[in-house]
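[09:14] KT: can someone run the structure on this one? pasting the chain below
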Amino acid sequence: MIKKILFVVLFCASSPAWAWGSYAHRTIGEIAEANIDPVTKSRMDQLFQAAALLGTPQCDLKNISDASVWPDCIRRDRLRWGYTSPWHYQNVDICKAFDLKSACRNGNCVSAQIDRNAALLKDKSLPPHIRLEALTFLVHFVGDMHMPLHSGDRSDRGGNDVRAAYGAIKGRMNLHWLWDGPLAERAISDGPNMVRRYSAEEKADKSFGTTEFWAKQAWEIARDFSYPTAEDKPSCGPKITGRGQIDNDEIRALIPTVRLQIERSGLRLARLLEESLK
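[09:31] RB: done, structure tokens below
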């Protein structure tokens, strides 16, 4: 386990900040796939046959697991795909009343892109490769928005400017990456398998609501858990100048919240896929 965490720390130190690590994104996609009906899955799988037309051979796109990380993979080609970077997040100030519009001008935010790509996926008049591109963005962005620090912000790039330590690991990590990588991986691994068929009651309890409602939930978690847990003080007090710390007891206490967000994300994605591919 320590070796795994050290790998994540080293990876975080040299990589740009994505939302959720690959493990969490793939888990969200697999939860969704396990909870869509066979007709929806068949229609989704047919779209993957158009992957070559997108012209991204460096980024695998054979299934929903690949789709869940494809939008991060293509971002490495800044000349062609750099314009999509603002679509992965929305910096809504946690120290003011929730105001999504302030962070979502001209549709350049994750919430707007979820709605946009769901509509594109639903449009059967579009060519398959265009709908496939919309599918990949939808799968990925639903995951992104549920990562609290891609919805909540404190003028610090969603925690990217907040130095933080994870348990006994003191490496070069920031608060954003702490939630992206080691905390998400620990939450997924610490408990029953999250990739399963959920009951109708579980789906009803976790998949309801609008995109804006989901965004506000994630923003509240950033305000109520992400910042105060790391800094051991209210979210909107004076910023600490040293390194924040999430100790082992706090990590264990945060696991249910992170697991809930990943489950919500997977089941809400399943709902959107059912609605867009029917």
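[09:33] KT: thanks! Strands lie at 92-93, 152-153, 164-166, 244-246.
[09:34] RB: yep, looked fine to me
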